[in-house]
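help with this:

***
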Amino acid sequence: MSFTLTSKNIALNNYVLRAECLKGDGKTWSTSTLHLGYALTNEGGAFMVAAAGIPLLPSFSKNLRLVDGRFLHAELDEKPDILELSRINFLKFSDNRRFVKSVINLDVCISNKNGELTALSV
């Protein structure tokens, strides 16, 4: 079920989504937060539900804003890249970075499970 149907006061602060979520009893509300890096990735400048790929990081995205509590708008780096060397991730930026506009309905990647915002996986 979409989290927006069972949540209120939905807000975004940097990369952290915050909402008051209805618990399973249908009466009690709980404040919950979720870092969007656990729910989304950047695949070639488009939002994708997190499974693999490059996490949604400040280095690869800018101008995040929430519209109507469910639509996340941002500009995403079209060609992000992470190098893994000796089990440590290093960011690698291309010389010609290009950011493209992207939008996703957060109901496709986030749910409310008994009062907690939870990232859905593919």
Observations:
- Residues 15 and 36 are 6 Å apart (CA to CA).
- The first strand starts at residue 7 and ends at 13.
- The chain has one domain: 3-119.
- The mean pLDDT is 83.
